[in-house]
Amino acid sequence: MRMKRIIMLSLAVAAMSVAPISSLAQWRPQKDFDDKYATELVKTGTKAPDFKLKTSEGKTLKLSSFKGKYVVLDFWASWCPDCRKDIPEVQRMYNKFHAKGVEFVGVSFDTNKDAWVNALKKYGIVYPQVSELKKMRESAVAQSFGVKWIPSMVLVNPKGEVELSTVLSYKMEKKLTELTASQNKPLARVRQDIIIEGSKGKLAAYLVKPEGLKEGEKAPLAILMHGFSGNKEGQMEALMADSLQKYGIGSIRFDFNGHGKSEGAFSEMTVPNEIEDAKKVYEYACSLPWVDASRIAIEGHSQGGVVTSMLAGELGAEKIKAVVLMAPAAVLREDAIRGNTMGAQYDPLDPPAEGVKLYGNLVLGANYIRTAFSLPIYETAAKYTGPACIVHGTADRVVPYTYGERYHKLWAGSELHILDMYDHGFSQNVYHAAELASEFIIKKLK
Q1: Using one digit for the tens of pLDDT, what is the confidence trace for 2-33?
Q2: What's the CA gap between 36 and 188, in Å, rounded?
Q3: What is the pLDDT at residue 182?
Q4: Active site residue 80
Q5: What is the 3-state secondary structure (H, E, C) of the chain?
Q6: What is the mean pLDDT of residues 128-135?
Q7: What is the pLDDT of residues 231-241, one digit of tens each?
Q8: Which of 320, 331, 360, 424 could form a disulfide with 398 if both were Cys (CB 3.0 to 4.6 A apart)?
Q9: Residues 38-66: tens digit of each pLDDT
Q10: pLDDT tens profile 202-230
Q11: Three-class secondary structure assignment of 153-178
């Protein structure tokens, strides 16, 4: 697996040398490790091979004994560096999904029992573990499941069929989240379509009020902001709103000017007037009789993350209780300086009056370029001194994760979550990204 990372890093460097960092192509699905290293794993829909192996305690365990349940098979070894790196993620998944009826079984390719058992103790692994105490290439279970690389994971469904085979733990978590979603208690939808006056006209927004508020009772609220060319319908912010509502936290998510159903032209949109939009939304939130204005958090993805950081700097920790940045696109200033936004090239010192054509029918206005060219992103954000959380992926080719790291260094005491192999939109597992943001907001507002 270490060699795989070296190969992928080399490919990424090569790609960056021939293409602009923010080209549209980088938003499209990219090949991942499964395309190369999971090709021989048992296929989805096939019958999972049964096995009968000894556990670390010397007992016998049969895979077929779990029939009627979902079972995650985690193929690993204590001598494998990438397996050891994945252990915290697998344990987190176990803690999250075992309570929902999902079983986990570790299948080790250790040949030394003492090393295997000591690793289980060292890392506190409590779910069942089995092994033939043979090398992977000599293992019958590896042969039957087509395991050629570790760590690998296979999900077996209640019928004993393969539901998913992958070498990527985030894919397993995403699948389990989707399969167990029906177990979540449905929320009473108290979502309102509202209109807020913004910098360029009316802003279309969703207001989610916590259920069960008593008369005169106040609740915290989070303002959730989408990215460049996005809208309030985005899955990540919708997931956050649902999670926050469960904990008695309201939310507003809205379309920036020139986006979605809000008024204004996209060609007139700039980061500064999006900040003005956000201020108007903040003021609206504070005016709601049920909102505790001393407990307001703000979150933003991509360009919305830049807006969020600068809004936090302008309003200060006295007004903003917590901040979450999801893949913050502070690269937008460098894009403007070098005259290349989303792959569209232009003269940054003399941007065309008619704007710059992007993908689809979008036109980037000349004023966007002029304002972005000298935008004081970090200087403004530095004024915020409250709690902050930054989430970024190492496979983000639109905004390199180093921009997230810079925010982390800027804000002393901030949380930083660097998600291995996640892209700009966190498409590898948007549920996990949304969960990280929601949990931070809940922790700071409740």
Answers
A1: 444 433 433 333 333 333 334 444 545 567 89
A2: 44
A3: 75
A4: no
A5: CHHHHHHHHHHHHHHHHHCCCCCHHHHCCCCCCHHHHCCCCCCCCCECCCCEEEECCCCEEEHHHHCCCCEEEEEECCCCHHHHHHHHHHHHHHHHHHHHCCEEEEEECCCCHHHHHHHHHHHCCCCCEEECCCCHHHCHHHHHHCCCCCCEEEEECCCCEEEEEECCHHHHHHHHHHHHHHHCCCCCCCEEEEEEEECCEEEEEEEECCCCCCCCCCEEEEEEECCCCCCCCCHHHHHHHHHHHHCCCEEEEECCCCCCCCCCCHHHCCHHHHHHHHHHHHHHHHHCCCEEEEEEEEEEECHHHHHHHHHHHHHCCCCCCEEEEECCCCHHHHHHHHCEECCEECCCCCCCCCCEECCCCCEECHHHHHHHHCCCHHHHHCCCCCCEEEEEECCCCCCCCHHHHHHHHHCCCCEEEEECCCCCCCCCCHHHHHHHHHHHHHHHHC
A6: 97
A7: 999 999 999 99
A8: 424
A9: 999 999 999 999 999 999 999 999 999 99
A10: 999 999 999 889 999 999 999 999 999 99
A11: EEEECCCCEEEEEECCHHHHHHHHHH
Calculate mean pLDDT across residues 313-323.
Answer: 98
What is the domain partition of the chain in residue ranges? Answer: 2-9+30-182, 191-445
| In the predicted structure, residue 131 carries a pLDDT above the cut 80 | yes
Residue 20 DSSP label: -
Q: How many whole angstroms separate alpha carbon 302 and alpha carbon 274?
A: 13
- Spatial CA neighbour of 350 closest among 361, 339, 342: 339
Tell me which DSSP letter residue 8 carries.
Answer: H
Cβ-Cβ contacts under 8 Å for 117 (sequence gap 6 or more): 56
Contact 290, 218 (CB under 8 A): yes
User: What are the structure tokens assigned to 11, written together?
Assistant: 């490919």
- The two most distant CA atoms of the chain are separated, in Å, by 76
What's this model's pTM, rounded to 2 decimal places? 0.88
Taking each helix axis from N to C end, the angle separating 113-123 and 81-97, rounded to the nearest 10 degrees, works out to 50
Can you name the CATH fold of 2-9+30-182? Glutaredoxin (3.40.30)
DSSP code of 353? Answer: T
**Which tokens hold the place of 257?**
């000017």
